[in-house]
Amino acid sequence: MGRTSLRGNLGRLRRSLQFVALLFANGYWPGLLTATIYRGLGKALCVPFLNCYSCPAALFSCPVGAFQSFLAATRAVSLYVGGFLLLTGFAAGRLFCGWLCPFGLLQELLARGCARRHLPRFCGLFKYVVLVLTLLLPVFWVTEAGLGAPYFCRYLCPAGTLEAGLVLVLARPELRALAGWLFAWKVAVLAIFLGLMPFVYRVFCRTACPLGAFYGLFNGVSFWRLERDTLRCTGCGLCREVCPVGVPVNTNPNHPDCFRCLECTRACPVGALRFTWSQGEGEESGGKPGAGAGSGTILYEAGGRVR
Amino acid sequence: MLRATKHLGAVGIAFGLVLMIAGLARGEALALLQKAARLCLECIGLG
Q: With a threshold of 0.90, does the pTM exceed it?
């Protein structure tokens, strides 16, 4: 298989893996029929994406919910969940957002062709506020008994409302009786995000997801990363044009907002962008786009390596 | 620059793994299992 067709297949591979992750992380089908949650050993493991562990079909735990619950209960950081987040973050940054997250998949499926790519800067920064509050509130906003709560899950997380809240409230009358203003608020938050999804590409990931904000911090230092070959890059800007979230790929290929969909690697006409575990021969040197285009083109042509 | 961040990535992965093992030794996986195996009313906006 040639490199071009391999790159062409990446989009289908990514979509397939997103569905596999959705079904794998939510594979407890009896739970959906009986509206009860899975209680097996899988719940001791986290997945590297938002997937509410109160969803009747969930086989694993959500790292955000797990981290907050531990903070709220003990006022200490969970080494287990924190270590998992660091391990996955340093391994691949936001790759999990783009290739595995079921809520990201939903947003992509709902997005229309005209979905907005660019957002005002403050919208993108809001997710960092959410991240800081997610980490601090369970420790500092406590009851008289000294107990906090997973406040992100409680007040904001639309994934939990969709996967767990709505399903359980609709299926179990005793839970329906408990639904009050808080549940109404969460449904409203979900409705707002669902309403925006067709018009703003991955709006929740880009504005309010604390896990995406956290993983994005590792994009620049992660082991698996995007590399731009400064010798091959002609600075045409096509990568930036095709990026669904408007990341300036030609100047910062490992931007915190990049969720590694790899559309830019497919679009690059000279193959200057690639995703790699290892350091390549034409590493990203921080030079200006196209700075080495002239000499690089001659070099590759002379060497017979033009693709 | 890239080589340095590659090393940082590898060190970070190892550090995360060590933390996970330390957490396992402290019984945090079991605590997570006990927490996540019960319906979290707070997580679904009911508590």
A: no
